[in-house]
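So, can you check what follows?
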Amino acid sequence: MKPMKLSTDVLAQAGYHAYGRSTGWKNYQGLDMPAWDALGDGIQNAWRAAAVEIVSLVEGSTRPGTRTAHGSAD
């Protein structure tokens, strides 16, 4: 079977929903998580950045631990 190419938005939302399912739909403060569409652009963009980073790791174009918390290379 040929792997599917998924959009960054689809991957970001999948990650957000996986996080929600694993925490009982509570955020790190124990508050209810909003629906994806209710998140601000900044938070959605953070999930998109996480998705891009994971794809880079899977594709081998980034090594684990080669980026700092602010996204620049170590």
Notes: The mean pLDDT is 86. The first helix runs from residue 8 to 22. The radius of gyration is 14 Å. The CA atoms of residues 5 and 46 lie 20 Å apart.
